[in-house]
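Quick question about two entries, pasted in order.
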Amino acid sequence: MKKQQAQQILEAISTSDYDTLNFLGIRAYGNQGRYHTRTACITNLDELKGKCNPRLAMNACIVEDIGCPVCLKALEDIASA
């Protein structure tokens, strides 16, 4: 993921611009616990694949539920690089 795209995603998340997230092809993943706590992971982050994304659960989340602190930190690191 490139710096500019990471910045766009962070801005869209902070302003709840879900249309932009969908346009950018961002996908969320998480079980019902992550759905209820709004801590879904971003599955498009290659930097975190296999480390953060909870792929053993049934997906119950959509982009409105993104909020995993590990994913957001990775986005911030990419955006500020």
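Here is the second entry:
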Amino acid sequence: MYLHTLKLWNFRKYGIIGESFESAEPGLTVQFNKGVNVLVGENDSGKTTIIDAIRYILRTQSLEYIQIDEKDFHQDKDKLRTNELKIECTFKGFDDKEAGHFLEWLGFESISNEKHDYILKVWLYARNKDNSIYQYVRAGIDSEGSYLEGDARELLRVVYLKPLRDALSEMTHGNKSRLAQILKSHSVFKKEKNADGQEQQHELELSYNKLKEEIDSFFDPNKDKKGKKVTNAINDLLGKDFLLDKDNRRAGINLTGSELIDILRQLDLILEDNKSGLGSLNLLCIAAELLLFNETKPGLKLTLIEELEAHLHPQYQLRLIDFINKKEDFGQFILTTHSTTLASKIKLENLIVCKDKMIYPMGHAYTQLEESDYKFLERFLDATKANLFFAKGVIIVEGDAENLLIPTIAKLINRPLHKYGVSIVNVGSTAFKRYAKIFLRKDNLDFQMQVSIISDLDIRSLEFYTEENTPEITLIQPLNIHQFEGITTDVDFNKMPNFFESKTEFENYISAYKTVKRFPPNNIQTRLVTAFESIKKTTLTTEIIQSLRIKRRISKESEWKDDRIKIFLPEKWTLEYDIACSNLFRQIDQAILVSNIEKSNSSQSINEDTFKETKKEIESKYNGIELSPKISYDIFKPLSKGTISKASTSQYLAEILETENEEDQKITKILNSDPYLKYLCDAIYHVTEPKLEAHE
């Protein structure tokens, strides 16, 4: 059996949908997987509320005291608290043995014409009346149900590991020892019965009592043992100096307790002789809690863990989550985490994103991700990219240059990303579609997340072709696409670019977008290449390039119809090229110059003098010269050819922009007015609550 659904009415931040409590829909419904479920999201997004709701209704193995209080009742928009709340859990997946414990309350759910499944609904109802809170737990298939009591109630208790728990006190001796409670429930400590049906002493009790006799004898004042000196000395003080006359009581030193629970309360769980750190103690705590699940224990196997990463090194986190994923025998887990390390290693199918007053399961039934997207993201969703699950807004970029430069631009236009809770996700390629589709839903829920995709237009400038002496391209028109489709339908021609610069580029496209592993033996590849070569080549002009840019922009933007997810493209080519076309062309040229100095002489440190000298050199270089397309291309050429690092250039450019902006806000004014930089600013405004005065 497992927890299938949780529903909340008027519990904390989740109210109701409807006017009347009796007929209202729940304010929150969560469906859980049979195995691992991980709740992720920013602070105050509802993760703890979900965990607490389950604890309140099912109670915990540690027998902690749990009671509804007035702040558990929902507070409406007028700051008035409701006087009724309800928590409902639905359980499924029963085998016949498990179902036997709950026969009085079970119902049936039809799976097919011939097959039915057991279903158990349990709910907690609470009412706040005259400053007193009344609550009860019932179960059943109708709205009335009946009280859930006795063994059935006990079989629903969950294991709960709270955040920042005091693992040391829970795993050490004492009357409140959690370790003692766990061990007492283990089959190893079950007492056997004799032929008369009477419980026999446990073997641990027999051994302990022998030890007790020896220790008690050591301190017995009537025995000839060294310990009697201590006992007699204490009694001399009591008799002569402390107790009243005629008070004949005598002190004794004994090993206390003789029953099994007394023995278990004296045990400590340790990992090493010296004191262990908090992380090790937490691992011990988790291992002990899961001890009971090693057995075929009747009832619910559900473990709630808040902030699994608490006190755990990232490698311990990964080992633990890998263990939980593999061990089906340990039942169901519902975890919460703030750890991007963990969020990146959990399968998307097992993630539930909590945001504001909504939850967003990331399983295939809920998102527009394809099966191949899930496989891709499981391989490449690392800790830096998993930031998107915890952010209020996301900027998706294709490379290190944007990743390094965007935060500085945001700061300069007074939209620092950290202030707005915006994360940059650097996907390192054009695979941004897979990441952005995480936010597109089949269930029509609004993810309430603004997403900006910053991509390149990737239409080269005429200067590139002129310099390379290859000013001819093959333009692809709709008529040409029909020509290719007449040869084969085993290639996705819908993604065909507007033009190809060479036959090799066309062949690479065919290889990348064919929908079969191998073409049938009809010379398909050769026929496609022949058809391509038959198309008349076109000599490039500025007008043609501009036309291609317009088509490419329309094509890319048309792929994103969701108002919250928008793609932002440069006017011409790439981020760096468009900056070279803008009024920041001097600054990017200086950054390239500094990067070249760093590359040419690794022993030379880049310091304030380096920036001063290179700035003078750039000012002299462009003194009296007006910016032209040829100059912009020459600036960009080292980055285009890869002789200078784009990442290094962006890092130095960010530093130059911040420095130059300190005195007169010159850079801020350029950023907000230059048409070549507008798309970067717009992308930032989109995820940081855009305002009307943005471009004034």
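Reply: The chain is about 40% helix and 15% strand. Residues 371-458+554-695 form one domain. Hope that helps.
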